[in-house]
Give the backbone structure.
Amino acid sequence: MSRTTILRFLNIVTFLVLVSFAGNATKEKKFDVTETIMHHIGDAHEWHLWGEGHSGTSIYLPVIIYDNELKIFSSSHFYHGQIIPVADSLKPTEYLLGEGDAKGYALFHEKIYKVKDGALEFHGGHPHNAMPIDISITKNVLSLFIGAIILLLIMLSTSLYYKKNGAVAPRGIAKFIEPLIVYVRDEIVKPNIHGAKHTRYIGFITTVFFFILVNNLLGMIPVFPGGANLTGNISVTLFLAVCTLLVTVFSGNKNYWKHIFATPGVPWALLPIMIPIELVGILTKPFALMIRLFANMTAGHIIVLSLISIIFINKSAAWGFLSVPMALFISVLEILVAFLQAYLFASLSALFIGAAVEEDHH
Amino acid sequence: MDLVTPSFGLLFWTGITFCLLLLVLAKFVWKPVLSAVNARSQKIDEALLEAEKARQEMKTLQAENERILKEARAERDAILKEAKEVGLKMIEESRDKAKTEGQKLIESAKLAIKNERNSAIADMKAQIATFSVDIAESLVKESLASDDKQKSLVSKMVQDIQLN
């Protein structure tokens, strides 16, 4: 076959693919990029696998709510329930009325509300109904559990190796994990927390590092059991940042508090200004940690999803030749970011704790 | 806005999971793994130190060996030298002894020879005297057989006397 023949053949194939996809796409409803991406990076009471709406395949996760009593039922009672459109809204939207065990509750934007008179009351696009305490095993919670199990399996098998073999050269999984643990201790904890005190914080810093790393990487896997945007969820980063804040505040020594309430070298007259600034400073540091991890991981997911969405916006698979290599590039970059963000969170936590336990040098 | 609003459920489960992870990992992983790593690095350090010490010891041992060998060689040389000297002395002494012994033997032999000769001479003298007397007797008997001969003898004797 000559070169021109191959080119002609490729042209025909591309054309056929284009036509078939274009034909399919016209039948579906309008593709909303923002909603799709927000849905992907947000939390859900189901783990959507494939398909659309009622014909799609999902893993229905258990709903656990506390509304005077603990109620546990499958989220399928919402997702297979009645779809009710919301009239009082700028954008066309809808909520799911629970049935069966979920009767009396409704799901709107993955939040559970108590139904009043068989419906939700909307004011300015937001429901004003009461909300039960929702501790459901959502997509992110399940991802959290899977991440924790993976982490435990990896780490306990590493630990088991040393238990079995004693202090010998590492092999197998230990060969991979040991340098990481030693790296965290020698390059993150030791340089930031001086002296023998650092041993007290190795456990916290190392756990934070591996927790973020494993969940970051798990989030990069596009299919179940990965893909949940766990470390890009503000609740998770908030919890981790609060941990760092508490550890910092409770390990702060006299020197640390002296720098906050009577900063050396600052005239007494300026202290009324300095003390509030320093107090805010205690909060801004972990706040920055929270936002950094959240924004980086969410942004990564949004970029990959946006690039993939190019195909669906243009309703043509041919755009895959552009969007797939770009998404691949960003995904590879995101693997770097997964390590980088875990390193940064652990490193900065160590830095803050190190500053709190630093002895006076003056 | 949903994106930046923490949800109680996830916060609750994250808290429980993270705290459990922290407890389990700190107790069963970080601590034993790091202590194993520390123990290993200590073991390696000790082994290296031990090796260095062994090498040093080897060196001193080698030096000691060399010294002992050197001493032994020197001692052997000394012994050989002494033996040689002793041998030479012994040869010298025996030579001297043999010489004096020989001298003595020669001396005694000479003396014996002298004695023998003297006695032989004395014997001979006695013998000669006897022979002389016998000869003289037979001569005298011969010469005094006749008057003429007696007379001539007397005259010769007288002549001799006159000559003296």
Notes: The mean pLDDT of chain B is 90. The interface with chain A takes residues 2-15, 17-18, 20-22, 24-26, 28-34, 36-37, 39-40, 43 of chain B (CB under 8 Å). The helical segments of chain B are 8-143, 147-163. The radius of gyration of chain B is 65 Å.
